[in-house]
Amino acid sequence: MSGTVANLRLYTGEAAVADLPDPPPPADPAPLPDPVVLAGRELIRPPSYLPTRHARDPFSPAWFDELDRKRYARHGSWLPKALEFGRHPGEAVLLLNPGVGTDAVAYLRHGSEPTVAAGPADHPDLIRANLARAGHPVRVVLTDGPDLPFADGAFDVAVLNGLDGPSPSPAELLRVLKAGGKLIGLFPARYDAGYWQDLFLPLQHLYWRRPADSSTGPRWSAAGLRRHFAGFVAHRVKKRHLRRGELPHLWRVLPLAVLERLVGRVLVLKAFKPLPALKLATAVHRPLAA
User: Fold this and answer.
1) C-alpha span between 263 and 240 (Å, rounded)
2) Which tens digits make up the pLDDT trace of 191-248?
């Protein structure tokens, strides 16, 4: 039975149910990334690498544990010293372009207070799953756009992974760092082994094809990084990271520790936010104690 009262239609029985709109379908979950690509970025290895048949189940706790172990072994043995895991206990550390959060776990284990800034291309759920292994909460903040959603002077250290993802402006990094705060950045090197191979071995494609570059971010020279981060002071830039498989066979007899400092794939930048001029002048002119 149904009827109309003024402009209001009344339904009873099955007609009332039949005229209800269908509920919207559930949203599809975000697709998971290719685990081989994600692991390659975490381990800074060429995309041509093929996983072994004994590889762990992707995104399982064992998979994250294996990444944790391999990231700082062999070719990545320089990372703990370069990223200064043990030098900032009790300090607030901001990680930008965090990968799957392996470095955040390392800072947490050494007593730092890490904050992970996850951009649109990152996968926050995977980062949180990896961070959960540490047994302590780590703040994960979603970012979108050039501005960082943090207060002025919120961090003692900013760690920027510029190997694959976009980088915020130097002005934003200066803003969120405390006076005297430290910037540590990883960037693809312009004058790396691949550059010199292409220059000195123009016919290499006839007898050998070098692996593809291990990073997709913009390439930098040391001088270019100093100019780009000119608002910082006390710049230091070093080259690191190289695999023998990325070198022609005749070059592989040379010591790898020497080669990576000359033609390494990664530039490590360290610089500081300047102290205010007033504080600096006071420190310079402070009389010595008797």
Assistant:
1) 8
2) 999 999 888 888 877 777 778 888 999 999 999 999 999 999 999 999 999 999 889 8
Task: Tell me the sheet residues that pair with 255.
Answer: none
Question: pLDDT tens across 27-65, in order?
Answer: 455 677 889 889 999 999 988 776 665 567 888 999 999
Domain ranges (residues) in the chain: 35-46+55-285
Identity of the residue numbered 6 = A
Q: What is the DSSP secondary structure assignment for residue 220, as one 8-state letter?
A: B
Fold assignment, 35-46+55-285? Rossmann fold (3.40.50)
Q: Can you tell me the distance from the alpha carbon of 281 to that of 247, in angstroms, rounded to the nearest whole number? A: 50
Pairs from 167-176 (Cβ < 8 Å, separation ≥ 24) = 167/96, 167/97, 167/217, 168/96, 170/228, 170/229, 170/230, 170/231, 170/232, 171/231, 172/146, 172/147, 172/148, 174/231, 174/232, 174/273, 175/148, 176/94, 176/148, 176/150, 176/151, 176/152
107 CB neighbour count, 10 Å cutoff: 26
What is the Cα–Cα distance from 84 to 78, expressed in whole angstroms? Answer: 10
**Helices within the chain (DSSP H only):** 14-18, 35-43, 61-71, 79-83, 102-109, 124-131, 170-176, 193-200, 222-228, 256-263, 277-285
What b/e string do you get for 245-260 counting C-beta neighbours within 10 Å, with b at 16 or more? Answer: ebbeeebeeeeeeebb
Q: What is the mean pLDDT of residues 99-113?
A: 95
